[in-house]
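Table S2 (text version). Query chain:
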Amino acid sequence: MENLLSWIVATAVTAPLLAWYLVYIITVKMTRKKKFSFRLAVDLSTIFFILSVHFILIELVGKSFLWVILLMIIGAAGAFTVLHWKTKDDIHIHKVIKGAWRFNFLLFSTGYVLLLLIGLVHRIISV
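Corresponding structure-token output:
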């Protein structure tokens, strides 16, 4: 059982698009709500995209940039807090966290695709 769990987590970190798709398909089958399923899949797979970007950077560069990733996450949360405060005059922390988390999904999924392409090009050139 422990090996199965570690295999599932390793696969989700290695292929976060697969994790996103599986969460989406499973929740659509269970709830029949596509919009809800899409948002839940985004929310749950964000952590896998963040971890994937971290491990791809370690593989490509040879050192960890976890502190930069954490600063980006905190910076996004700060920016969303200020933006929400300026537009609404009152901070609803739940909406701020949701917005920042979904922005991180866009940021890190884009970073994942770019780093994946850079890694492929790097491997092709080195061979």
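Notes on Table S2: The mean pLDDT is 90. The chain has one domain: 2-126.
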